[in-house]
Amino acid sequence: MVVGGMTQYLTKVQGMPKEVEERLEKRIRHFLWAEKVKVTVNKETIYAPADDSGRNLLDIVARNEAITVTWLKSYLTFGKGRAMWAYVTDEIMSINAIGGDDNVDVILRANPYLQKWKPTRLDLSKDLQRMMKIGDKYDLRLDGLAISRKIQRDMPIWYHNKMNATRALFNLGSEVQCLRKKP
Q1: Residue 126 CA to its chain's centroid (Å)
Q2: What whole-number distance in Å separates Cα of residue 165 and Cα of residue 78?
Q3: How many CB atoms lie under 10 A from the CB of residue 40?
Q4: pTM here?
Q5: Helices marked H in 33-143 — which ranges?
Q6: N- to C-terminal Cα distance for the chain?
Q7: When you count CB atoms within 10 A of the terminal residue's CB, does the N or C end of the chain come out lower?
Q8: HEC states along 111-144?
Q9: What is the pLDDT of residues 35-65, one digit of tens each?
């Protein structure tokens, strides 16, 4: 209760570095087993509900991962209710596109999950790296059986994630240049 109550709110707001997560797990383990070296009960049993003969102990790693999933959900919420930090994150990711990706105009980069460009992860903060890693872990991608016309129209047209055309098609020609400059 103490570990969950004192850490999870701050983790939701600020994130938790991996080193802190590991130290907390170690302290919980030492407290639970009175610093015994050999433990005969596996972690899954300890984390299991009391009804299943477990200790109902907070799985700090799983909880922190769930918090990161909620960040990702918030980041991918578009429209009027979108958080300000999500817009800032879009800009940070746009600036850090792989290799400065000259083939994708900075002005046209909107969101790496909606378009065919990716940020250089090493240049992102640890929290954003973790968020992108969780998206990879759960194979997050744009997909749907029947996407409404409104959603299709709201999608960025340039470098759309599902496009089959080459990037050169979106960079060459006076018509393309004109369309890119006019909303």
Answers
A1: 11
A2: 26
A3: 7
A4: 0.76
A5: 43-47, 60-75, 84-95, 126-137
A6: 53
A7: C
A8: CCCCECCCECHHHCCHHHHHHHHHHHHCCCCCCC
A9: 777 777 777 888 888 788 777 777 888 889 9
